[in-house]
Every structure is written in C-alpha cells, then in structure tokens.
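User: Reviewer 2 asked us to show a designed sequence for the structure in our supplementary figure. I'm pasting the structure tokens here. Could you produce the per-position amino acids so we can include them in the response letter?
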C-alpha cells in the first residue's frame, strides 16, 4: 500500500511540475559518461535496424515474443525512444515522438466484457511502459508536443489505477543464466557502465545472442547512469576475479516476512555459493520439498537444492 501511495504521489508531483514550471533542458548523449555513451550508441544503432516506420514500432528480435506477443513490441519501442531522444541526431526527434505516440495509442484504456476493472488483461501492451513514460515525461518534456504530454499524463494515471496498482516491481537487474557471455542481461549492462565493454561479461554483439530484447533496455541504463553509485570496494571485484570467493545470503519468505523476523522464519532459505575461476558450487538450506512456484511438469525445478558447474574452454557444464 505504501508503494501504491508513493506511485500516486509521484504522478501528482509530475502533474504539478508540468503545469507550474518550465521544462528543464533534456539530457543529451555527450553529457553522460563515456561508458554510458558507448552503451547507448551501440544499442540505439542496433534498434535502428529493427524499427518499422510503417507501424512506428520496434520489431521484436525474440523468437519467444514472435510466438506469444506478435511481431512488434511497445515496451522496447519506448526504450528505443529514449535512445533517440538522447542521440537527437537528424530525424531522431521526430522518430521518437512517433514511437511514443504509437506506443501510447496501443494501450487498452477501457473495460471490456473480459474485465470489470479499468485495465484489462493485456497482450500487445505491457504496463511496464508506465515506468518508462514516467521517466520520459520529466526528462524530455521540453522535446514533447503539448498534446503528447497530456496523453502521457493520462496514461500514467490509468497505469496507476490499473495494472500498476498490482504490479509495481520489475527485474531491473535480472540475469537468466550462468554464462552471461552467451546472452544479453540487464546486470551486465550495469557492469559495462562501471568498467567498460572490455571488462564486462558481454556476448558477441556482432553475432546473434539470446534474450536480444533485453539489449533494448540500454537507453534506460544510460539515462540513469549519472545516478549510479558503485562503492569503491566493489569496483575492483568487477574488474578482476578473486578466486576462492564464498557468498552466503538469507532469503526470507515473503509470506512470513510481515510477521516474523527472518531469523525466526521457518520458510527462509540460506543460499551459499563458492566461486573459483573455472568451478562454481551452489547449495541451499530450506524447509521445502520442491519449488514453491507453479511450473509445468516438463519444466526443470526452479530452485534445485544444490548445483555444480564448471567451465572448460569457455563452455559451461553443470
């Protein structure tokens, strides 16, 4: 409830800012760090090739999205628009305006027979776009026409009253596997921001890689880069590996966290990993007989009690 209240307060603040003050100058590519510039340029250029000028949306690069969502995606299109606003070269501004306008047009704003709520079950429109719009509005308002500003404000209010009131979290630092050089992940983008391309575990960008749509998130990382703060003790660990590292974390059960301290929580998990240069061992202590998440019978367990992985000639085995 506190998060929902905060979200509404942010919307109210944005409304006051847009109606009572002049818009601040928009962020520009040359004003961010060199690592952030490299990220934004590469990602935006990659998305240039996937932009469909007819539909004014980005074509998906994910086979999974092609099978479940369709050929075009609004979420990635909004991320692309931030890259265009930052680059702001040639026709970038006009293209970004068209992309934001089309993305907001595809949102569902009225209840249907499938739902009595103001927001309905979505497929081609992802409510995470509300987060991106909430960033676009204050940062790039000076580059937006008045009617689009009004449309974004309206969309944010609908998002707060609809899907976003039940779904206010996203994996802004997620990864999907062990070898991050095989696929695109958000956590690697933040590492790149800190140490640069040469020292980040990135996939070969000249060849196809898994989770390609996550590469579209980069403009968000670049835009937020001035606010990224990495402790001095952490940076050396991102630049070179320290062998024989042991990491242990307590993961408390969400259902029990409100009533019990994590030390007294009978459903918490203690997760421990040991890392060397070529071997990784993980295990967990938990009061569970299996995964607590509903998964198809054919799907492997989401939380196995232990795992061993090793790398031979840049190939992981586990």
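Assistant: Here is a per-position design you can include in the supplement:
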């Amino acid at each position: 409830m506190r998060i929902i209240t905060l979200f509404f307060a942010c919307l109210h603040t944005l409304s006051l800012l847009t109606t009572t003050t002049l818009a601040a100058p928009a962020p520009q590519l040359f004003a961010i760090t060199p690592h952030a510039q490299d990220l934004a340029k590469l990602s935006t250029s990659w998305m240039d090739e996937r932009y469909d000028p007819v539909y004014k949306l980005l074509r998906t690069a994910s086979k999974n999205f092609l099978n479940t969502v369709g050929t075009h995606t609004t979420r990635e299109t909004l991320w692309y628009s931030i890259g265009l606003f930052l680059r702001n070269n040639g026709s970038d501004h006009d293209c970004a305006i068209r992309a934001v306008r089309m993305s907001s047009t595809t949102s569902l704003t009225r209840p249907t027979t499938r739902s009595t709520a103001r927001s309905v079950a979505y497929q081609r429109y992802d409510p995470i776009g509300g987060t991106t719009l909430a960033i676009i509005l204050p940062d790039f308002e000076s580059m937006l026409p008045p009617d689009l500003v009004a449309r974004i404000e309206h969309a944010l209010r609908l998002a707060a009253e609809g899907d976003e009131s039940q779904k206010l979290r996203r994996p802004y630092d997620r990864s999907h596997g062990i070898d991050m050089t095989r696929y695109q992940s958000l956590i690697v983008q933040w590492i790149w921001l800190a140490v640069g391309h040469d020292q980040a575990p990135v996939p070969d960008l000249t060849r196809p890689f898994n989770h390609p749509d996550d590469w579209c998130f980069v403009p968000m990382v670049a835009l937020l880069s001035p606010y990224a703060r990495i402790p001095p003790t952490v940076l050396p660990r991102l630049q070179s590996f320290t062998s024989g590292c042991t990491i242990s974390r307590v993961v408390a059960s969400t259902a029990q966290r409100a009533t019990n301290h994590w030390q007294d929580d009978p459903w918490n998990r203690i997760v421990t990993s040991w890392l060397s240069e070529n071997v990784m061992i993980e295990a967990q202590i938990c009061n569970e007989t299996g995964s607590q998440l509903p998964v198809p019978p054919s799907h492997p367990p989401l939380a196995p009690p232990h795992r061993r992985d090793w790398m031979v000639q840049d190939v992981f085995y586990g």
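For the response letter, you might also mention the following. The first helix runs from residue 2 to 20. Residues 241-318 form one domain.
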